[in-house]
Amino acid sequence: MKRIVSTFLLLTILTGWASAQSRGSYFFENSLLRSKLNPAFAPKTNYATPPILGNLSFDAASNIGLRNFIYPQDENNVLFLNDNVPAETFLSQLPRKDPYVRERLESDLFGAGMRIGQDGYATLAISLVEYGSVSLSNDLLRFLKTGSAGTSADVFGGGSLRMAAYAAISAGYSHDLHALVEGLRAGVRLKILTGVAAADLRIDQIGLKFGEEQLSASIRGNGSLSGIGYDPEGGFSFKGISPLSIGAAIDLGASYQLPLEGRVESLELSASVCDLGAIRYRNSSTALGIDNSFSFTGFHHIIGGLDEEIDQMIDDIGGLTHINISEKEHFRYALSPSIHIGATARMFHDKLNAGLLYYHAVGSSNLMAACGYSPLDWINLGVNWTFLGPANRLGFYVECIPVKYAGFFFGMERASWRRNSYHLPVRNATDSFSFGINILFGK
Amino acid sequence: MKTQHPAIGWAFLLVAWIATSVSCVDHKYDFDRTDRSVNLTGQTIAIPLGQTGPLTAEALFGEKVSEYLAPQSDGSYALQYTANPVNISLDELKKIDGAAPFARFCDLPLNYDFSLFSKPANPAFDAQGQADLTGYLPKKIQFESVSRSISTVVPNIPKEICGLKSITLTKNSRIELTLSIPNCLLVDGTITPDLRLDLSSIFESSDFPDGVIKINTPLDSKNGYSVNVTIPVQRFALKPDSFNAADHSLNVNAAFKFDGNCTISQPRTDRTRYEKAPKDIQLAVTIIMRDIAIQEVEGSFDYSRTSQVSFTLGDFSSRLSEKFNGDVTFDFDDPTILLDIVSNITIPISAKLDLSARQNRVTYAQVKNIPIELPLAQPGASASKRIRMSKNPGQNPGEEAIRADFSQLLSRIPDDMLISAQVATMSNKTAVLRLGETYRLSLTPQVIIPLNLGPSTRIALRDTLEMPEKLGELLNENTFQLVGNISNRFPLELSVSLVMVDADGMPLTETVSQVLGAGTTNDVTLTLAKLPGADTGRLTSAVLSFEVKGTAEKRPIRTDDTIEANLSLLVPGGFHYTF
Questions:
Q1: How many CB atoms within 10 Å of residue B306?
Q2: Looking at the partner chain, which of A70, A304, A375 has a beta carbon nearest the beta carbon of B463?
Q3: What structural domains and CATH numbers belong to chain A?
Q4: Taking Cα atoms as reference points, which of A340, A338, A232, A243 lies closest to residue A286?
């Protein structure tokens, strides 16, 4: 149990570093890698990406931050379970939904894009993707703080931990369909996925009851692991990569340039859905099951034999965390798809743009408003404000994209600009970050 | 305008860089400032501690004692211990072996020669050289009676036999009788005897109840005119005066009588046999008694001896001495010793028992001359008996009650006990003794000491309980309360106390105590608070103590004397913990 909790906490902390893939690039027509958000988009130049540096993006969504669990008091601070934090204060700051932290990390080992004829643009990439999510039950936190889960039976959900790591070989193609409809462009990207490791763990139910007549506890849950071993003594361990875990996914997108007259010269409407697919993990798959209960009604040998009863009680409590381990042939892991629907108005010969983007990513729906400025043809500068979603957040985007040689981009969004010394967000751990340096082959 | 564009770009870049790298560091949320004490649940936690059923004296005295605590049929408790059986072998009885004294008698063969007929002078031989002797020999020959007397003394009859009634022989005891016609004239034809041997004066046999052996096995050329006959004998017939108790000897005076006749049919001879045959043809009879050994003797016996055996009380002694000689005192009023006896002795034996109790190999009390009768076994079998010995033994089915006062003997728990048994036969009765049998007496004592409460009763029990790790850390932050009620149905005022200690026995908490009134239900509220300055991280165990004062009236501890606890552990404000 301790290891499970440690793993939860570790992942929670790690994901606190996350900041989401900057979607500021979505509104710039010449942005190099915005095709990752919508395969219909095509940059103006050919490119190749060096390993890791070419594209590194991190995306996190959460409905909690440090302030939910740490409360400053004078020179020090206290944890939410401390006596000095009134239960009402803690409960009033709990989100309505169960607390969660979700994150997605993607990095390209290799990538390239080039024009195909007059209307086509092809991309090829080999990427490493890691997705993780942790959630805890509000009831569990409420119980720890107040001794009552707020449910009549003192039975509540525990939480879940999901993680998947995979490599993706993707090939995309975008085509200008002006022959059909002037301004229409469509794209598709196919992905072959190789699973590295995955975990899907859930504590479905926790029961706790303190009473003068009976102390009882129960825990029920299950999980699947692939590429990750579990040993009750040694905990979790990485088992190595196997080519047996295979999956596929598809990204679809379309955009439409509506020419306008007046200050607003054009309106770009676009939509995409990415990561529609799943992986069948076959690599050392393991099924985990936990269904244990403990009940204590009192010692029956208070005089003589109490030692044995205490030992038995400790053993029984230890038995609560007993995990049944069995081999499993495979388990299917569905990717978390993302959706982008955007509208971008361009003005002043494309030097200025304003846009609105709805996107659903890492399990959350968001609405972003953005404006961009391109002082030169090869510089994109943007600011954005996401006002619907797990948290309001401010972001910016910077991209230098000359015709040839090298370019870079850097973008981020943050919900909480206040951080502690460990760079963990105080208000809300919803962040995104993207960065890349690429080699350009334009003319 | 064009020149301003890069400037705006660089300004934007600068703002972006500052925003990402600097943000706003709020040290109020730094972990190194975090007070790591937490309080789980925030409200008073109640945990059941003792929802126990009735705790009897067995639980009160602990496992070491309760193993020996046995409820009695009258509802009282007694300490009870069954010792391992001890054996007494009566080798003197085994030494009564009748085979040797009778060997001389058995070596004595009896021979009888009867004249059959004389060889005919000139029988008519045919062309093949053979002669039919039918006309020459008598068809039936009548013998004269022949008597023979035996008179001998079998000395050294064992002195334990003081009166002899009968002697039963072994299964192999037999008489072998040989009839033969040496140098028989006949080469063909049959000589059929009809003989009578009267041995009734010395042997009894189921094969010849009247004591007369009848022999009529034919002699012919097929058996070479010689036959052997075996006659089993079961008992040795004694005349009233044959046993001399004064010098332990057996006088054997017997007379044998032999008579009968022979019938001859189809007698034939040849020239060669005729020429070799003697003039007088005789029937020779030889009688030999084989394996005439005694298996059982029936008579009266005069036997006595003294044997001493000891039985240890093992764990019973060591475990109870620790409790009942120090922390606990009771009145051991009417101790009982149950004696289970198993014996294969077939002669009635009375015994007197002396019981001695010892501690450190020194006898501190004795009870002498307890008369008992050993169980009487049938030959080849065992018999058992249970004897209940106490001041007021009562009558229990299947038990023999004997009055004996063991109050001094069992005023404390002895290390071991000696049993001296003086055994003796009752010589005026007749019994059967199987010779060569290993006669053994097995004694299994059972000590029963009733437990009585009284003015001198004192119980001071102290139990050290190992506590789980981390409990000390919880105690450092929490105050535990034991609440509930304890129903004390003992006629005793019971004082309970609890204190948490470290490995050196140093108290870490205040000692909390509660006096439970006799025969009442008592509300309990005990608050376990840390002593000022105590390091509860060193907590290793809890010490639980019970003290009992005596009762005015003496009475046994009964099985319905119980303590029933209904206790809960309250942790006010929930669990405090610092990690």
A1: 12
A2: A304
A3: 2-441 (2.40.160)
A4: A232
